[in-house]
Amino acid sequence: MSFDNSKLGLPYFSLEAAAVDKSPSEMVITDQTGENYYIVTRDVFEDGLQQNGYKVVVNEGE
Questions:
Q1: pTM for the whole thing?
Q2: Are the C-beta atoms of 1 and 48 separated by less than 8 Å?
Q3: Banded model confidence at residue 1, pLDDT cuts 50, 70, 90
């Protein structure tokens, strides 16, 4: 199953900015390049992003 990347919204180009903007129930992930960061919920991450090579860089609660 392919994930619809349009659900991600605009990327952050700074990990620090994404980490500050996320809520405690959200996580920050990065794409395969490691240059773009996105704020998502665990459900969204597990619903296709994880299988498409995205990686968690800031967990919930951090």
A1: 0.89
A2: yes
A3: low
